[in-house]
Structure formats: C-alpha cells, structure tokens
Amino acid sequence: MYPFFKHTQYLHSTLSHCSTLLDHCLSHKSSNFLNIVHAHFLKLGLNSYTYLGNRCIDLYTEFGNINDALKVFDDISYKNSTSWNICLKGLFKSGQVGKACYMFDEMPVRDVVSWNTMISGYASCGFSSHALGVFVEMQGAGVRPSGFTFSILTSLVSSSCRAKEVHGMMIRSGMELSNVVIGNSLIAMYGKFDLVDYCFGVILSMKQLDFISWNSLIWACHRAGRQELALEQFCCMKAAELLPDEFTCSTLMSVCSNLRDLEKGKQVFAFCFKVGFVYNSIVSSAAIDLFSKCNRLEDAVRLFEEQEQWDSALCNSMISCYARHDLGEDALQLFMPTLRKNIRPTKYTVSCLLSSVSIFLPVEVGNQIHALVHKFGFESDSVVTNSLVDMYAKFGFIDNALNIFNEIKTKDLVSWNTIMMGLSYNGKVCVTMDLFEELRREGMPPDRITLAAVLLACNYGNLVDEGIKIFSQMEMEFGVKPEEEHYSYVVEMLCRAGNLKEAVDIVEKMPYKTTTDIWRSILSACAVSGDLQDIEVVATKIMERAPQISLPYLVLAQVYQMSGRWESAVRVRKAMENRGSKEFIGCSWVGIKNHVYTFESNQLQHYGGKDIYLLLNLLVWEMETECGV
After folding, report:
1. How many domains does the chain fold into?
2. Of 25, 119, 277, 374, which residue is the least packed, with the fewest Cβ within 10 Å?
C-alpha cells in the first residue's frame, strides 16, 4: 500500500504545483505563458486530467483562444459537466453560436448551469427570442430555474405583461425575492416599462438594499418622468448612509436637466467635483446636457474644454448642445474631429446635426451627413430617417423626403407626422390627405401633430369643409383635444375663405387664452373686406394683448386715411410712437462655403451692395426679355 500512497502524494503535489502555474497565467494575463504551461502538461501526460483540463479551457476562453480550448477539451479523458459548460460558454464568447448549439445537443448531461449558459449566450449575441425558447425547453425538460436564470429573463422581456409573467414564475418557483440581486433585477425590469409602483413593491419586499437598488429605483423614477420622486429617493439613499456613485450622479444630472433646475444641478455638480466624478465622461456629458438645457452654454463649453480625453458620450453631448442652441457650424466643427479620432456618433448625434443643417447650413452639408448615415449603418433607424425626412422637407426637396419615408420598413407615428407636416408646408395638399387616409387604414391613431398637419393642408388647399369636419371630430373620434395650433390653422383657413363670422365665433369659444397670431389672421381678413368696424374691434384686441406690435396701428392708420379720417390716422400713429411699437424687419440669409450671412431689410446697402442690386436688376431684365414680358 505504501507505493500507492507515495504515488498519490506525489500526484497531489504535482497537481497543486500545476494549479499554481495556472494561477500565474491568470494573474499575469499571459496567453504565451499559458501555452508554455500547457506544453509542460502534455510532456508530463497531465493533459488528460479533468481538473487541469477545465482550468486550461477556462483560461484559453478568457484569453480568447477558443481553438486551443477545444483541443484541451478533446484531450480530457473524463469530461464532467463543468468541462462541457466552460467550453459552451467559450464558444458563445467567441461568437460561434452554431458550434455552441451543436455542443449543447451533444452534452450527455445538462444541468441548470448548461441551460443558463445557453440562455445567457443567446441573449449576449442578440438572439432574445432563441433565449426565451431555450427557457421554455428548459421547463419542458423539468429543470428548475435558478435565480440567475430569472435575472437573465428580466433583461429579455419586451413588454410589461411579460415582465409580470416572469415575476409570477419567480414566485411560483419559490425564489427568495428578498435577495438583493434578484430584487435589483426586478426593479430594473419594471423600470424599463415605467412601472414605478411595481418597483416600490419590490423594494418593500427586500430585506436589504445596496447602492444598485437605489440607483435602479432613481433611474426608474427618472425614466417614468417622475423627477421629483427621483430626487426624494436620492434623499432616502443618503439617509441609508449609502454613497452615490457615478451612475447615481449622472442620473441626478439628467433629472435636474428635465426639471430645468439649475440650482439643484449645481449642488449635484459640486458633489461630483468634491469626490472626483467630474472627469468621468458619463457624469461630464450629463453635466453638459444640464448646462445646455438651462441656457448656460458658456459653462457647458468650459466643462468640455477642461476634459483631458474625448470619448463618444462626451463629444455627442457637446454636439447636441451646440445643435440645441442653433450653433450648427460649431456642431459640425466639433463633429469632424471626432470622426478623425474614430469616435463613433450615436443616432441622436446624427439626428441633432441634421436638425441644425435644416435651419442654418446649406443642403450640401446635409447630403454629406446623409452619406455618413449609410456608412455608420443608421439608415434603418427611425430617429435618423425621420430627421432626414424633416431636413429634406424643410429645404423643399419634398420628393427626396417622400422617397426616404417610403423606404422606412417600420414606420412609427413620428415618421407619418414628419412627412405629412413636410408635405403640408410644401403645398402637397392632396398627398397629405391621401397619407392621412392611409394612416387610418393602418389602424394607427393620429395624435395632435398628425391633425395639425392635416388642418394645415386644409388651410393651404382651401379645403374648408374637410377642415371643419376634421376639427369638429378631433375630440370625439380621435380622442385629441384641440390646442392653440389647431385653432390657429382653422381660423386662418376660415379667414382666407372669407368666413369672418365663423372665425370669430371659434375664437370666442376657445378654451385657451387667444394669441395675437390668431387675431392677426382675422385682422388681415378684415383689412381685405374693408369693414372699418370689424377692423377697429380686432385691432383693439391685438393692442390690448401686445401693444408693442405695430401691425394693428398701421392697418388702422391706413384704413382711416382711405376713409378720409385724417385726425384718427394721426392719433393712431402718435399712439404707436408713444408705446414704442416695433416693426417687424424682414431678413434673409445665404450660405456660402458653410458660412451663413444674414441680412436685414436694406442692410445689404451698408455692405457695399449697390453693385449687387444693379446685377439683380440686369438678371430680372434678361428674364423678362426671355419670357417676352
């Protein structure tokens, strides 16, 4: 017996030494050293031992050498479930989903770890439906899910109903829901669907809360739009003597941004500065967004310039900040260096750039960004495609906008609203009305923007009967309460059709405080009709609401002059001067080499534009000659 014990003792010592060598491979993260150790095992004939083989497989997959891991797997004489599971995990990690499925089918015994590996592997590779299918198969095989199984499922559910079903299955399976890990996964799941009350229900059932629990709860409140409640949870977190981390601070910054509460945002920012979070890119990008939304552009720029290193989150926030403040050129000047630094833009960054282009920069810049959309693979993203449709529509290239809209495979309501509003502004009344009917056939309920686009089309197309019918059906048939813009379009439509009495009746029945824009439409219609009494009534209403606007004074003065009431005309003009009424000065802009030059009325003369006017007159003369006028 002595030689046997001696051999066993020697083998145990050898295996212990080999395990130490493998520990060195892991601590030094050296795949070359692992190859040397593996060669040593082969030389000593230790490659067939299960324990050492499993360690080698685990390390090879950790270093990304899946082929070497498979060779070790083949050499193991007795493969236990750990051997199969580690190899299965490594195949998914390397993206070899097909081989992983084949190995799973060949496994002699599948334990709960095997099933979890398949579910998490499918989920990590983006095959959520396959992962859920494996879970169903797992239940059919009679394997009891573990807490890890359910934590994976909570990240896969795609609806609030499914979320509640998973929660119910956890209860029926006897899961310890007071466990902090399971509780946190449930809070994150319910928070994804804005079910804040369910999040609090989970919190109340948990025996212990960590900072992840509070972060998930604060994020859930913020996502659901309950910003004040999110701040209250932060106070509770501090009362529990748990320190916030970078994620907490970035979420709180976003909460303050949505509230437009600069003072509270400054307090959060001061804390970040104190504990050293201010140079974390996620926190800094949230702070830039806060300053931007609170109209503190200088602070946002200063914080961005203080950052030592750029990354995607930081640059995208600053580009969005410039775009939000109508600084399209600055946004582009920052965007170009980020491309050279291989910093990938997000779909929201591209969308912000397209919005900037559509207002202030030439369409050629928009075409260049459109080309980048295909380069980065955003052409199927609804946020980007909707921005493209909006950009081309605002530039008047409505056919391009319509082509992009038609290529969108899955159209959401924003897509329909964007193209319909663009068509209406470009005078494509019939196409707008046809799309509205198509939208209704699709079974997608219109919202306030949809109906505003339709009413605008009726206004431009003089479709009075259709417009009145849709306006009267808004609340009863579509469940949309008319707002100021809807009233404005209908009133303008009636005024253009000469139905002044109906327009005034609608204005007087408005549940909102009437705006000066609506009365301007009526005043313009009254001026055309020439009814002095109506003009005086409407002009007086505009003067009461906005005395600084010169339009009602000018209209009244002109009507009085035409009627021979010179004293009244002088009195109105004097009143306009005394009240400091402002005239609207027309302006235009032109883009030259990515720069926008703005000119107010007659301002071109100050830039030495006399020759330009002479040239324009010459061009007009040539056009008249060609047309035979």
Report:
1. 1
2. 374
